[in-house]
Amino acid sequence: MRYSLMCKSFTGSEVLDCEKVSVNLENNQYTFSKVPCSASIVTQLLPHGQRVDITLSFHKDTTDPVNFSFSMETEQWKKDNYVLMPGAVYNGNRFVSMPLQYPPYYQPAENCSYADAEVITSIPHLDFEKMQSQISLLSGDMASPLCGFYDFNRQSGSVLLGEHQCSSYYTGFTVHENQTDREASFVLSVPGVRETKAYFFGDQNDGKGFRPDASAPSHDTGALFKQGDTFTLTACIFHWHQISLSDFFKLVNGAKITLENPTNFYNVPFYKAYTSIKEKYQRENFTKEGYYSVGTDWNIPQQCWQAGWIGGGINCYPFLVEDTSEAQQRALSTLRFIFSRLQHPSGWVFGMYGNGRFYGDGGDINLDTILLVRKNADLLYFVLKQLFWLSNNGHSTIEFGQPVKALCDAFVRLFRKHGQLGQFIDIAAEKILVGNSAGASMAVGALALASEYFQCTEYRDVAEQLGEYYYRNYVKKGMLNGCPGEICQAPDSEAAFAMLESYVQLFETTKKSIWLAYAEETCEIAMTWVMSYDFVFPVHSTAAKRGVHSSGTVFANAQNKHSAPGICTLSGNSLLKLYRFTGSVKYLHQLCAIAHSLPQFVSLAENPEYTLEKKYLPAGYMNERVQTSDWEGKETVGEFLYGSNWPEVSMLLTFVEVPGVYVDFTSRILQVFDHVECYVTEWNSDSVLLEMYNPTAYATMVTLLADERTDTKHVTHNYFEKMKTVPLSAGQRIQFELKK
């Protein structure tokens, strides 16, 4: 491995000149000849690596804008090395890239196999065939400010980590491969400059419409420095040997907070966020046809009904288990509407519906039987949770048994016929239209749950076969993709978290240790999509004014380059279960980061969220944008869009599935997820004395779960009724006893 310092001067984003100096990782000094600057390097040993502090000092004013880079360069480079830039690039994003308009839908020709190469839109990627290619991103384009690679042949991994901001400038990360010389470089720069080209998603100047474009003009440039200026660029280099790809992800997740560790904060309690959204749902999301819609503008079919994914058939679940009056009855009405009006004779449920008409998921292809399979996988999983709750609470489920079983059977037939579930299918012909995707991975958990509910071993067997298929073809290769319906087969967080949820459920159902091992392996991939630090938003942005903490938000996918509040569309309680099954507290901490982040993005009557459309979000609305990237324009960083989005569902799920305070008597562990402070004052054998304080401006109702993690039946499909509740006024401090 070689290392170097570089200084480049710019006209706009075009390089005027470049000076490169080879360096060794020892305390040393270097002087640039083309710019009036000297560099002093101080190194510090880290486990499996080094910290490098590069102090740059200017003895004259610079005449042109410049930037400085630290580069890690490797030889004997091969295209099959796995390149990672968390939340943005997985396995180099080496797919067939096409300049497709949004929303993209690419169906192979009739004579092509549904197992042909994956297709992505024009997003940053390393090329399949070209001898040279490059990915250049700003730190805000990624969930963690690092880049690196795993070498399958040498079973080794290397990572270059930086801070997301240096001397008030956002840093940049570039991966460049030169197959002619069999070299690759991994570069950290300040200020970050994407030379000549940058990724932009919107109306393109070439007249080819609204679409993603990885070759749009870059508006970055270097910076002018004055005599006497000084700043320090810090990098950490890690090298690991004799590791697997799974180990690599685990080590990356451990290393990513070396330089930037998020701080704790208190904002909006879970209960306040939940009730605001619940009131909004009763006010704006229950249609005259008798179902909870996924949006509020019912003139747009996509906002009426979409199965699973963004909330269809999921949004009713929290109200079913938490409410005892109108919202619960409306949840039941939603279930009845789904299986009396939206189910195709084949058993599949239509992907989209609005005002008496069905719509397909195939973009401009106007065929209402085209289905994004993930939608029905999500739907089936959450419907089964609701059937379990109904059965356990004395409600008849006879009306749902046959139609839900028909949907289970449809999944079984599709898998038996094709050996996979694909990404898009024709539900009438039961034919895979687009394959090569882990998008339907929630079907594994859904069929595992169905095997319990219907006492059907065939569903369990297919769930296990599917679980092995997804592991072999996706998890083991470090890339889960194609869960959202409008990214083609790009990598995404939703497939990773759905796969995690499924493996946890499969372990819970079968008690076979292999599925727990697969769950832990999948979790490491999923967590690379979660922002590990608090982004410094532009000072005049809405996010900065609201004091937004980006840590714990989740990058959506490699195409739609924004982070988002929560997981689409889950609470993340699979992490709670992973803790219960393994005893590893890191899973509680990971869940806390995601769940704790959510409430700050709920627009409240007392504190409405301002949007780029120059109007406030109504109370109970959540928008999916947490903009740390300028993928839609630099002016959008730190801003929000107007509209009601799926994070509302994630917040609803969080309230009923993630306790505000979790107490495990087995390991004597207390974990606070909610926006309250809670301390143990005394542990007893069957009770614990707690002190709790509400530091927020809102009265709340805190949920508490007293648990014995070794009791496998205590936390399964539904456990909201096992949580105790404690009312707490704003600023109130109380002491109380929590019994098992």
Going by CATH, the architecture of the domain at 2-255 would be: Distorted Sandwich
* Terminal residue distance: 56 Å
Largest sheet: 8 strands, antiparallel
Q: What's the helical proportion of residues?
A: 25-40%
Low-confidence stretches: none
In the sheet with the most strands, the strands line up as: 3-4-5-20-13-12-7-8
The level 1 CATH classification of the domain at 2-255 is Mainly Beta
GO biological process, one term: carbohydrate metabolic process
Short note summarizing the structure:
With 740 residues, the protein is of the alpha+beta class. The chain is built from 14 helices and 35 strands.
Describe this structure as you would to a colleague.
Among the domains are: 2-255, Beta-galactosidase, Chain A, domain 5 (Distorted Sandwich); 530-740, no CATH class. The model has no long low-confidence stretch (mean pLDDT 96). It is globular, with a radius of gyration of 26 Å. The strands form ten sheets. Strands 3-4-5-20-13-12-7-8 form an eight-stranded antiparallel beta sheet, covered by helices on one side. Strands 2-1-6-17-16-11 form a six-stranded antiparallel beta sheet, with no helix packed on it. Strands 30-29-33-34 form a four-stranded mixed beta sheet, with helices on one face. The protein is 26% helix and 26% strand. With 740 residues, it is α+β, with helices and mostly antiparallel strands. InterPro entries: 6-hairpin_glycosidase_sf.
